[in-house]
Amino acid sequence: MFADFHQIEKILIIRLSSLGDIILTTPVIRAIKLKFPHLKIDFLVKESFLETVKFNKHIDTVHTYEKDIDGLLTGKYDLVLDLQNNRRSRKITEKLGGMVEK
To answer: pTM of the full predicted structure?
Structure first.
């Protein structure tokens, strides 16, 4: 089941690692932002892959797993898109609460 993006204001996309897989998220991010320009899109990645996404004009804020995880847990996200879908990312999404799409 997919979320109704018209009712969502802020989302977090999680893709922590694997260079190729992170690059493959680019069309997803672009499509979401172009269809719903009002959305604030944050992205969570491992610090070693920060350079891959930090200049993406469709991402509002890039967070790194190593530095920003505590700050994320206090943030309010209407939707979390877990594109990593492993034990570590599921732990993050559980702590964030809210609606989660995998």
So the answer is: 0.86
